[in-house]
Design goal:
It is a multi-pass membrane protein. With about 475 residues, the chain is mainly alpha-helical. It contains 20 helices and two strands. Strands 1-2 form a two-stranded antiparallel sheet.
Length: about 475
Amino acid sequence: MADHPVDEKLPAPKMATTGLQHVAAMYAGVVAPPLIVGAAVGLTPAELTFLTGACLFTAGLATFLQTVGVWKIGARLPFVNGVTFAGVAPMTAIVASTDDKKDALPVIFGAVIVAGLLGFLAAPFFSKAVRFFPPVVTGTVITLIGVSLLPVAFGWAQGASPDADDYGSAVNLGLAAITLLVVLLLRRFTRGFVKQIAVLLGMVAGTLIAIPFGVTDFSPVADADLVGFPTPFHFGAPQFQLAAIISLCVVMVVSMTESTADMLALGEIVDRPADERTIAAGLRADTLGSALAPLFNGFMCSAFAQNIGLVAMTRIRSRFVVATGGGFLVLMGLCPVAASLIAVVPRPVLGGAGVVLFGSVAASGIQTLAKAGLDKDNNVVVVAVSLAVGVIPISAPEFYHAFPETARIVLDSGISTGCVVAVLLNLVFNHLGRGGREAADVTHPMETGEDLAATTGKAPAAS
């Protein structure tokens, strides 16, 4: 009996090139969180390089767990893992609330360890509760992730520091615009591999263009070692603070929700539907990878949706291709020179690329919301209020200024608060007290309108 395409082992050259393609598709996404958090902490270029390499290394380990699997750990699907965007806003909030910035990373690492271990224990139960996270909830959360991170891209576009003389200068904004233009042109006029790595190529082009303007700094590469290892607890032993733990536990729920949705989608694409057991195993890999990451100075790990799109486009379904990509990530993490290359990229160039990168995350959320039955008034209310609450920290940063600092760590994360509100409102509006309504007229809270039509044989009723 022939192996399923998911279990197929391709020839070595094809395995290597297609594995690199997955790395190219996710690279910018992996390095963005350590750049954001590292800048907030005030790390030196050398420390930022170390943190970036550590995140590449732990992303590779987490990808191994997902694709190859051990015991009941790993979905054993072509599932790429990396640092989740969902944790960025809460982690920067933790940094802002920490008096001594040297303690910020240890506090974050301690919270990630606890959230990862609790998530690991909860994985089999969460896989049963997935029906409480329909598209109306997951779509809202993913949209909020992208929207919450767009201000970061706009800040990068202006320069490295608000205190710098050239912050917001025409040169910086021009470099951001040129980088964005290069990415858009590559996405519009190229195909295949080149199109897939348009963001990476745009960053390279923007960096080269920035050299004559004196914006590009090559010192991180010159100072980096060829070989290195992410020393355990390089930034200090983990510290455990309740408010930070609560904040990142909420993020873990968000991350597990995203990963579950991604596993369901990927299972359909590769023709191996993800059942409850697969989802539980995949969530164990996510959460265990997250719990182990702080040991090597990494952050919380989750699925990368852009790689699911790559699988769908190329129709290369082998999980060993993705495992090879994980191997490349580990090697990059062990080679500081490779990791330091991202530190060379000027912030305005990152800003131009970030507009596409973070905007794509928001667009993915909107695509999910399109399946959420928004022709139903109840679902519109759920999305409207959840998004409104989620953007409070962006549109009114001082809104919660009268609250205690411990509460603000959670409240200042629009992703966390938006997720909680979306889950609760979905239950209140779509789940509780449904008995007196006609099933044909009301979309089931745990199904999309399309799902309802499929199960009843009727089209969803118009609002």
